[in-house]
Amino acid sequence: MGEIKVSKKGVEYAPAKVLKTKQRVYSQALLMKIPHDHAGLSDISLKLGRYTLPYGRVVGNQPKSELTLDNDELSALIKYISDNYTPVNLGQGQYISVDRDNAELIRQFKTLVDGQTDTANLLIENGILSDHVYVAATSIKKIAALEQYEASLAKDYPERYWQSWFSENKWLLGSDFAQIIDERRIDTENIADYIMRAFDGFVDLVEIKKPNGLPFWASSKDHDNYVPSSELIKAITQCLNYLRAIEEEANSVKFVQKTKSKVIKPRCILIYGRSDNWNDEQREAYRILNTAYNQLSILTYDHLLLRAKNVLGVIDNPVPIRDEDALPF
What we know:
Order of helices and strands: EEEEEEHHHHHEEEHHEHEH
Number of domains: 3
Strand content: 15-25%
Shape: elongated
Largest sheet: 6 strands, antiparallel
Number of helices: 9
Structural class: alpha+beta
């Protein structure tokens, strides 16, 4: 912070700043706070001058040219520079002005992301929307959704709530998935929560159970080992049956047409229960359990939360995502 001085006439001012020195002249700025006759009132003024520089020394008070801007002129000049310096510097069509206090403008761009990326890309390509604003809008939307997600974990919402939530926020499931397919029916007997189209064009599955009220581990150990609860075993069995059923549809022209995807070794993510209070032994048991399946990955709601926080950088001390917190495929 600069030093503020007071003149003999009671004028507060910042020490003069030499802006540029040439061979025979120098330019200088002096910012002053001019008091009015009315008590407590004052104006900020800026004096700009160009002065003679004889013999290479800054001397004398006689200006070659001088201009003093009053409070209104100075405010207008500051706004003008703030609004126009960066666009002029970068060039037409490359910049959109968004200051850090104008988050509302960024939020207005939320409608351009998650489902309307073609529109956003078109605006970026034509210089109407900065790609930085696009990234900021996407991040703001995801952080807000993550806050809602974490708050909802404390409530006993049913499975249908979470099915709807993940439909609107499929990004939390991981980057492998390109699209949720509208068709959920595998065959006459099996209806999955989500049939997903992966980026490679093949079909995968996502099955969602609620986070609370379903124990992950059995109430007692077996041979001093943590084992899955009966509820978790039922959910795993359901996923394996879905995988078998969808593999049987691999040669079905009707299924391929309605999903617009191919079926080759489908994979399934099971989202089940909580892990926020696990001990080290339970985390090791989880690792062993998850590696036992080739086509199935079990993730708790807390695994998804930790992974998303790491990706978005919204935790104080980000840590590398452990293997068991990431998709194994």
